Amino acid sequence: MKIGITCYPTYGGSGVVATELGMELADRDHEVHFISYQQPIRLNTERANIHFHEVDVSNYPLFEYPPYDLALATRMAEVAEIYSLDLLHVHYAIPHSVSALLARQMLAANGGRRLPFVTTLHGTDITLVGTDRSYLPITRFSIEQSDGVTAISHYLRERTLQVFDVKRPVQVIYNFVNCDLYRRDPESEKHRAEYAQADERILVHLSNFRPVKRVPDVVEIFDQVQRQVPARLLMIGDGPDRSTAEWMVRRKGIQDRVHFLGKQARVHEKLAIADLMLLPSQLESFGLAALEAMACEVPTVATRVGGVPEVIDDGKTGLLAQVGDVETMAKQAIKLLSDEGKLRQMGKRARIAAQTRFCSTRIIPEYENFYRCVLERAS
Ligand code: GMT
What we know:
The protein is an alpha/beta fold. It has helices spanning 13-27, 68-82, 96-109, 124-127, 136-145, 154-164, 186-189, 215-228, 242-251, 267-271, 288-295, 308-311, 326-337, 340-357, 360-378; strands spanning 2-6, 31-36, 50-54, 87-91, 117-121, 148-151, 171-172, 201-206, 231-236, 258-262, 276-279, 300-303, 318-321. The model has no long low-confidence stretch (mean pLDDT 94). Ligand GMT is lined by residues 12-15, 17, 92, 122-124, 127, 152, 175, 208, 210, 212, 283-288, 306.
Protein backbone atom coordinates (compact mmCIF):
# COMPACT_ATOMS: atom_id res chain seq x y z
CA MET A 1 0.00 0.00 0.00
CA LYS A 2 1.03 3.64 -0.46
CA ILE A 3 0.24 5.44 2.77
CA GLY A 4 0.48 9.14 3.64
CA ILE A 5 1.03 9.83 7.36
CA THR A 6 0.56 13.16 9.10
CA CYS A 7 1.45 13.84 12.73
CA TYR A 8 2.94 16.44 15.03
CA PRO A 9 6.66 16.02 14.41
CA THR A 10 7.81 17.36 17.75
CA TYR A 11 8.18 15.50 21.02
CA GLY A 12 4.85 13.91 21.95
CA GLY A 13 3.33 10.47 22.09
CA SER A 14 1.18 10.78 18.99
CA GLY A 15 4.14 11.81 16.84
CA VAL A 16 6.22 8.95 18.21
CA VAL A 17 3.47 6.38 17.51
CA ALA A 18 2.95 7.76 13.97
CA THR A 19 6.67 7.69 13.24
CA GLU A 20 7.22 4.18 14.59
CA LEU A 21 4.13 3.00 12.69
CA GLY A 22 5.45 4.46 9.43
CA MET A 23 8.83 2.79 9.88
CA GLU A 24 7.24 -0.56 10.79
CA LEU A 25 5.00 -0.33 7.68
CA ALA A 26 8.05 0.44 5.54
CA ASP A 27 9.76 -2.65 6.99
CA ARG A 28 6.74 -4.59 5.71
CA ASP A 29 7.34 -3.16 2.21
CA HIS A 30 4.63 -0.50 2.17
CA GLU A 31 5.53 2.89 0.68
CA VAL A 32 5.20 5.57 3.36
CA HIS A 33 5.02 9.34 2.87
CA PHE A 34 5.21 11.59 5.92
CA ILE A 35 3.61 15.02 5.42
CA SER A 36 4.25 17.61 8.13
CA TYR A 37 5.91 20.97 8.84
CA GLN A 38 9.08 19.31 10.12
CA GLN A 39 10.70 15.90 9.94
CA PRO A 40 9.47 13.83 12.93
CA ILE A 41 12.11 13.47 15.63
CA ARG A 42 12.48 9.68 15.48
CA LEU A 43 12.07 9.37 11.69
CA ASN A 44 14.87 7.69 9.76
CA THR A 45 14.47 8.33 6.02
CA GLU A 46 17.41 6.23 4.89
CA ARG A 47 15.11 3.54 3.49
CA ALA A 48 14.04 4.06 -0.12
CA ASN A 49 10.36 3.49 0.70
CA ILE A 50 10.13 6.21 3.37
CA HIS A 51 9.68 9.80 2.20
CA PHE A 52 9.27 13.09 4.01
CA HIS A 53 7.35 16.01 2.45
CA GLU A 54 7.68 19.31 4.26
CA VAL A 55 4.68 21.63 4.47
CA ASP A 56 5.76 25.18 3.85
CA VAL A 57 3.59 27.75 5.63
CA SER A 58 4.14 31.21 4.17
CA ASN A 59 4.00 33.95 6.74
CA TYR A 60 2.27 36.76 4.83
CA PRO A 61 2.20 39.94 7.00
CA LEU A 62 -1.62 39.92 7.05
CA PHE A 63 -1.68 36.49 8.69
CA GLU A 64 -1.49 36.96 12.40
CA TYR A 65 -2.15 33.20 12.56
CA PRO A 66 -0.58 31.50 9.49
CA PRO A 67 -3.12 28.92 8.20
CA TYR A 68 -1.07 25.72 8.58
CA ASP A 69 -4.14 23.50 8.19
CA LEU A 70 -4.76 24.90 4.67
CA ALA A 71 -1.12 24.55 3.60
CA LEU A 72 -1.22 20.99 4.96
CA ALA A 73 -4.42 20.14 3.04
CA THR A 74 -2.84 21.46 -0.18
CA ARG A 75 0.34 19.42 0.35
CA MET A 76 -1.66 16.29 1.25
CA ALA A 77 -3.63 16.56 -2.01
CA GLU A 78 -0.45 17.20 -4.03
CA VAL A 79 1.49 14.29 -2.52
CA ALA A 80 -1.52 11.97 -2.89
CA GLU A 81 -1.81 12.83 -6.58
CA ILE A 82 1.90 12.76 -7.48
CA TYR A 83 2.67 9.53 -5.60
CA SER A 84 -0.75 7.85 -6.12
CA LEU A 85 -1.37 7.35 -2.41
CA ASP A 86 -3.96 4.76 -1.44
CA LEU A 87 -4.94 6.50 1.77
CA LEU A 88 -3.99 9.11 4.36
CA HIS A 89 -3.56 8.26 8.02
CA VAL A 90 -3.63 11.26 10.35
CA HIS A 91 -2.59 11.16 14.01
CA TYR A 92 -4.23 13.61 16.41
CA ALA A 93 -7.56 14.92 15.18
CA ILE A 94 -6.86 18.65 15.38
CA PRO A 95 -6.27 20.00 12.77
CA HIS A 96 -5.01 16.99 10.80
CA SER A 97 -8.36 15.32 10.15
CA VAL A 98 -9.84 18.60 8.94
CA SER A 99 -6.92 19.03 6.51
CA ALA A 100 -7.35 15.45 5.28
CA LEU A 101 -11.05 16.05 4.73
CA LEU A 102 -10.25 19.13 2.63
CA ALA A 103 -7.62 17.21 0.65
CA ARG A 104 -10.15 14.45 -0.07
CA GLN A 105 -12.68 17.00 -1.31
CA MET A 106 -10.12 18.88 -3.43
CA LEU A 107 -9.04 15.69 -5.20
CA ALA A 108 -12.62 14.60 -5.83
CA ALA A 109 -13.57 18.05 -7.15
CA ASN A 110 -10.66 17.87 -9.62
CA GLY A 111 -12.18 14.71 -11.08
CA GLY A 112 -9.81 12.46 -9.16
CA ARG A 113 -10.63 9.35 -7.18
CA ARG A 114 -11.78 9.36 -3.56
CA LEU A 115 -8.78 9.48 -1.21
CA PRO A 116 -9.89 7.80 2.04
CA PHE A 117 -8.44 8.97 5.32
CA VAL A 118 -8.06 7.30 8.70
CA THR A 119 -7.96 9.34 11.92
CA THR A 120 -6.24 8.00 15.02
CA LEU A 121 -7.26 9.69 18.27
CA HIS A 122 -4.49 9.90 20.85
CA GLY A 123 -5.73 11.72 23.92
CA THR A 124 -5.57 15.43 24.44
CA ASP A 125 -7.11 15.91 20.97
CA ILE A 126 -10.28 14.53 22.61
CA THR A 127 -9.90 15.06 26.37
CA LEU A 128 -8.56 18.64 26.43
CA VAL A 129 -8.36 20.42 23.09
CA GLY A 130 -11.33 18.67 21.55
CA THR A 131 -13.68 19.58 24.38
CA ASP A 132 -12.88 23.30 24.01
CA ARG A 133 -16.05 24.83 22.48
CA SER A 134 -14.04 26.52 19.73
CA TYR A 135 -12.82 23.14 18.46
CA LEU A 136 -15.55 20.68 19.49
CA PRO A 137 -17.97 21.00 16.52
CA ILE A 138 -15.25 20.82 13.86
CA THR A 139 -13.48 17.93 15.62
CA ARG A 140 -16.78 16.01 15.82
CA PHE A 141 -17.43 16.76 12.15
CA SER A 142 -14.02 15.59 10.95
CA ILE A 143 -14.26 12.42 13.07
CA GLU A 144 -17.69 11.67 11.57
CA GLN A 145 -16.34 12.33 8.07
CA SER A 146 -13.26 10.10 8.44
CA ASP A 147 -13.29 6.84 6.46
CA GLY A 148 -12.00 5.04 9.54
CA VAL A 149 -11.37 6.07 13.14
CA THR A 150 -9.16 4.36 15.69
CA ALA A 151 -8.48 5.15 19.35
CA ILE A 152 -5.43 4.04 21.30
CA SER A 153 -7.36 2.66 24.29
CA HIS A 154 -10.87 1.63 25.32
CA TYR A 155 -10.92 4.55 27.73
CA LEU A 156 -10.36 7.01 24.86
CA ARG A 157 -12.92 5.28 22.67
CA GLU A 158 -15.57 5.59 25.41
CA ARG A 159 -14.68 9.25 26.06
CA THR A 160 -14.95 10.01 22.33
CA LEU A 161 -18.36 8.37 22.03
CA GLN A 162 -19.65 10.10 25.18
CA VAL A 163 -18.22 13.60 24.86
CA PHE A 164 -18.60 13.95 21.11
CA ASP A 165 -21.75 11.90 20.80
CA VAL A 166 -20.13 10.24 17.78
CA LYS A 167 -22.42 7.73 16.07
CA ARG A 168 -19.84 6.01 13.88
CA PRO A 169 -17.70 3.02 14.95
CA VAL A 170 -14.36 3.75 16.60
CA GLN A 171 -11.96 0.80 16.66
CA VAL A 172 -9.45 0.38 19.46
CA ILE A 173 -5.93 -0.35 18.23
CA TYR A 174 -3.52 -0.20 21.14
CA ASN A 175 -0.18 1.56 20.96
CA PHE A 176 2.76 -0.75 20.40
CA VAL A 177 6.47 -1.14 21.06
CA ASN A 178 9.22 -2.78 19.06
CA CYS A 179 10.35 -5.46 21.50
CA ASP A 180 13.56 -6.17 19.58
CA LEU A 181 14.71 -2.58 20.00
CA TYR A 182 13.27 -1.90 23.44
CA ARG A 183 14.95 -4.54 25.56
CA ARG A 184 17.47 -4.96 28.34
CA ASP A 185 20.79 -6.44 27.28
CA PRO A 186 24.27 -6.72 28.77
CA GLU A 187 25.55 -4.04 26.33
CA SER A 188 23.09 -1.40 27.54
CA GLU A 189 23.75 -2.29 31.18
CA LYS A 190 27.35 -1.11 30.70
CA HIS A 191 26.05 2.49 30.24
CA ARG A 192 24.65 2.55 33.77
CA ALA A 193 28.02 3.72 35.03
CA GLU A 194 27.65 6.97 33.03
CA TYR A 195 24.87 8.06 35.40
CA ALA A 196 25.05 6.06 38.61
CA GLN A 197 27.31 4.18 41.02
CA ALA A 198 26.91 0.40 41.18
CA ASP A 199 24.88 0.61 44.42
CA GLU A 200 22.47 3.30 43.15
CA ARG A 201 19.05 2.80 41.58
CA ILE A 202 18.12 4.67 38.39
CA LEU A 203 14.65 6.20 38.15
CA VAL A 204 13.46 7.68 34.89
CA HIS A 205 10.75 10.05 33.67
CA LEU A 206 9.99 10.50 29.97
CA SER A 207 7.51 13.08 28.68
CA ASN A 208 6.94 16.37 26.91
CA PHE A 209 6.97 18.16 30.31
CA ARG A 210 3.47 19.59 29.84
CA PRO A 211 1.33 20.42 32.92
CA VAL A 212 -0.75 17.26 32.34
CA LYS A 213 2.38 15.20 33.17
CA ARG A 214 2.68 16.73 36.69
CA VAL A 215 6.47 16.95 36.43
CA PRO A 216 6.75 18.66 39.87
CA ASP A 217 5.28 15.43 41.36
CA VAL A 218 8.11 13.48 39.71
CA VAL A 219 10.65 15.65 41.55
CA GLU A 220 8.76 15.35 44.87
CA ILE A 221 8.54 11.56 44.58
CA PHE A 222 12.20 11.25 43.68
CA ASP A 223 13.23 13.53 46.54
CA GLN A 224 11.48 11.25 49.02
CA VAL A 225 12.94 8.12 47.39
CA GLN A 226 16.53 9.34 47.39
CA ARG A 227 16.34 10.01 51.16
CA GLN A 228 15.78 6.27 51.72
CA VAL A 229 17.44 4.57 48.73
CA PRO A 230 20.65 5.67 46.96
CA ALA A 231 19.29 6.76 43.59
CA ARG A 232 19.55 8.96 40.50
CA LEU A 233 16.81 10.38 38.29
CA LEU A 234 17.01 10.69 34.50
CA MET A 235 14.60 13.30 33.12
CA ILE A 236 14.12 12.67 29.38
CA GLY A 237 12.28 15.16 27.20
CA ASP A 238 11.61 18.86 27.23
CA GLY A 239 8.67 21.23 27.48
CA PRO A 240 7.06 24.04 29.45
CA ASP A 241 7.56 22.57 32.95
CA ARG A 242 11.21 21.65 32.57
CA SER A 243 12.51 24.89 34.12
CA THR A 244 10.11 24.55 37.09
CA ALA A 245 11.51 21.07 37.66
CA GLU A 246 15.09 22.33 37.35
CA TRP A 247 14.38 25.03 39.95
CA MET A 248 12.77 22.53 42.32
CA VAL A 249 15.75 20.21 42.03
CA ARG A 250 18.16 23.05 42.83
CA ARG A 251 16.05 24.29 45.76
CA LYS A 252 16.04 20.79 47.23
CA GLY A 253 19.82 20.52 46.74
CA ILE A 254 19.57 17.29 44.75
CA GLN A 255 21.02 18.63 41.47
CA ASP A 256 23.89 16.10 41.56
CA ARG A 257 21.35 13.28 41.57
CA VAL A 258 19.07 14.48 38.76
CA HIS A 259 20.14 14.49 35.10
CA PHE A 260 18.05 16.52 32.64
CA LEU A 261 18.85 14.87 29.32
CA GLY A 262 16.48 16.85 27.06
CA LYS A 263 15.04 15.28 23.93
CA GLN A 264 16.68 11.98 23.08
CA ALA A 265 16.48 10.21 19.73
CA ARG A 266 17.56 6.81 21.16
CA VAL A 267 15.24 6.60 24.14
CA HIS A 268 15.48 2.78 24.29
CA GLU A 269 19.13 2.98 25.34
CA LYS A 270 18.27 5.12 28.35
CA LEU A 271 15.24 3.08 29.39
CA ALA A 272 17.29 -0.10 29.25
CA ILE A 273 19.53 1.06 32.12
CA ALA A 274 16.68 2.18 34.41
CA ASP A 275 15.13 0.41 37.41
CA LEU A 276 11.84 2.30 37.71
CA MET A 277 9.73 4.71 35.61
CA LEU A 278 7.71 7.51 37.23
CA LEU A 279 4.54 8.63 35.42
CA PRO A 280 2.33 10.60 37.87
CA SER A 281 0.21 12.24 35.13
CA GLN A 282 -3.09 14.04 35.62
CA LEU A 283 -4.36 12.06 32.64
CA GLU A 284 -3.01 9.52 30.16
CA SER A 285 -5.14 7.95 27.48
CA PHE A 286 -2.54 5.23 27.19
CA GLY A 287 0.90 6.03 28.63
CA LEU A 288 3.32 5.08 25.86
CA ALA A 289 6.33 5.92 28.04
CA ALA A 290 5.23 3.24 30.53
CA LEU A 291 4.91 0.65 27.75
CA GLU A 292 8.36 1.46 26.36
CA ALA A 293 9.78 1.06 29.87
CA MET A 294 7.90 -2.23 30.38
CA ALA A 295 9.51 -3.67 27.24
CA CYS A 296 12.87 -2.88 28.88
CA GLU A 297 11.84 -4.75 32.07
CA VAL A 298 11.29 -1.48 33.90
CA PRO A 299 8.09 -1.33 35.99
CA THR A 300 6.26 2.00 36.36
CA VAL A 301 4.79 3.80 39.35
CA ALA A 302 1.92 5.69 37.73
CA THR A 303 -1.45 7.28 38.40
CA ARG A 304 -4.68 5.30 37.99
CA VAL A 305 -6.06 7.49 35.21
CA GLY A 306 -7.53 7.14 31.72
CA GLY A 307 -6.15 4.16 29.82
CA VAL A 308 -3.22 3.49 32.17
CA PRO A 309 -4.93 0.50 33.90
CA GLU A 310 -5.33 -1.07 30.43
CA VAL A 311 -1.52 -1.01 30.08
CA ILE A 312 -0.32 -1.57 33.66
CA ASP A 313 -1.68 -4.44 35.73
CA ASP A 314 -1.54 -2.93 39.24
CA GLY A 315 0.73 -4.94 41.53
CA LYS A 316 1.86 -7.25 38.72
CA THR A 317 3.54 -5.14 36.01
CA GLY A 318 3.61 -1.80 37.85
CA LEU A 319 2.02 0.14 40.69
CA LEU A 320 -0.85 2.63 40.55
CA ALA A 321 -1.99 5.43 42.88
CA GLN A 322 -4.34 8.43 42.94
CA VAL A 323 -3.40 11.63 41.10
CA GLY A 324 -1.33 13.91 43.37
CA ASP A 325 -0.77 11.22 46.02
CA VAL A 326 2.96 11.76 46.04
CA GLU A 327 3.38 10.10 49.47
CA THR A 328 1.90 6.79 48.30
CA MET A 329 3.85 6.80 45.06
CA ALA A 330 7.10 7.50 46.93
CA LYS A 331 6.34 4.69 49.42
CA GLN A 332 5.53 2.27 46.58
CA ALA A 333 8.79 3.19 44.83
CA ILE A 334 10.89 2.84 47.99
CA LYS A 335 9.38 -0.55 48.84
CA LEU A 336 9.91 -1.94 45.36
CA LEU A 337 13.43 -0.53 44.92
CA SER A 338 14.42 -2.03 48.28
CA ASP A 339 13.46 -5.55 47.21
CA GLU A 340 15.71 -6.70 44.36
CA GLY A 341 13.80 -9.96 43.83
CA LYS A 342 10.39 -8.28 43.58
CA LEU A 343 11.73 -5.47 41.39
CA ARG A 344 13.23 -7.87 38.84
CA GLN A 345 10.21 -10.18 38.93
CA MET A 346 7.87 -7.26 38.22
CA GLY A 347 10.22 -6.11 35.43
CA LYS A 348 10.13 -9.57 33.83
CA ARG A 349 6.32 -9.67 34.01
CA ALA A 350 6.20 -6.18 32.47
CA ARG A 351 8.34 -7.36 29.55
CA ILE A 352 6.12 -10.41 29.00
CA ALA A 353 3.00 -8.18 28.99
CA ALA A 354 4.66 -5.83 26.46
CA GLN A 355 5.57 -8.81 24.25
CA THR A 356 2.27 -10.61 24.40
CA ARG A 357 -0.18 -7.69 24.26
CA PHE A 358 1.56 -4.68 22.71
CA CYS A 359 4.44 -5.89 20.54
CA SER A 360 4.60 -4.25 17.09
CA THR A 361 4.50 -7.72 15.48
CA ARG A 362 1.00 -8.04 16.90
CA ILE A 363 -0.35 -4.49 16.48
CA ILE A 364 0.95 -3.46 13.03
CA PRO A 365 -1.08 -6.20 11.27
CA GLU A 366 -4.17 -4.73 13.00
CA TYR A 367 -3.48 -1.42 11.25
CA GLU A 368 -2.85 -3.20 7.93
CA ASN A 369 -6.21 -5.01 8.23
CA PHE A 370 -7.93 -1.79 9.18
CA TYR A 371 -6.51 -0.04 6.08
CA ARG A 372 -7.67 -2.94 3.87
CA CYS A 373 -11.22 -2.67 5.23
CA VAL A 374 -11.25 1.10 4.69
CA LEU A 375 -9.99 0.69 1.11
CA GLU A 376 -12.58 -2.01 0.37
CA ARG A 377 -15.39 0.17 1.68
CA ALA A 378 -14.13 3.18 -0.30
CA SER A 379 -13.81 1.34 -3.63
O1 GMT B 1 0.03 14.39 26.19
C1 GMT B 1 0.98 13.94 25.58
O2 GMT B 1 1.95 13.40 26.07
C2 GMT B 1 0.99 14.06 24.12
C3 GMT B 1 -0.08 13.28 23.52
C4 GMT B 1 0.10 13.30 22.05
O3 GMT B 1 -0.86 13.00 21.40
O4 GMT B 1 1.16 13.61 21.51
O5 GMT B 1 -0.08 11.96 24.13
C5 GMT B 1 -1.22 11.19 24.02
O6 GMT B 1 -0.90 10.20 23.07
C6 GMT B 1 0.07 9.23 23.47
C7 GMT B 1 0.34 8.29 22.31
O7 GMT B 1 -0.79 7.67 21.86
C8 GMT B 1 -0.45 8.48 24.72
O8 GMT B 1 0.49 7.51 25.13
C9 GMT B 1 -0.67 9.51 25.84
O9 GMT B 1 -1.24 8.84 26.95
C10 GMT B 1 -1.62 10.61 25.38
N1 GMT B 1 -1.61 11.68 26.39
C11 GMT B 1 -2.68 11.97 27.12
O10 GMT B 1 -3.74 11.39 27.02
C12 GMT B 1 -2.51 13.07 28.10
